Amino acid sequence: MDKTQTYRIRVRGYLDDSYSDRLHGMTITPVEQEDDNGETFLYGQLPDQAALAGVMSYLYDLQLPVVTVEIVGDEEGE
Hints:
- It is a single chain.
- By secondary structure, the chain is an alpha+beta fold.
- The chain has one domain (about 5-75): ACT domain (Alpha-Beta Plaits), CATH 3.30.70.
- It is about 15% helix and about 40% strand.
- It is built from 1 helix and 4 strands, in the order E-E-E-H-E.
- Strands 2-3-1-4 form a 4-stranded antiparallel sheet, with helices on one face.
- A hairpin with a 7-residue loop joins strand 2 and strand 3.
- The longest helix is centred in the C-terminal third of the chain and has 13 residues, at about 50-60.
- The two termini are about 15 Å apart.
């Protein structure tokens, strides 16, 4: 599990691009919803499981509930 993977993480709540550096440069896309409980999608490559754990820990510190974490590819194009 120590290889570069591309992740898509969905959280409840809003983040803006200013958090990108603290989230290993992941792309941040906030999405408004009708019920005013917005969500944010994070997308990007993380070099290993330690980096993913760091992102998850930071989201926990921000008190943002994680909805999904998906591996959408790795450095070999899987």
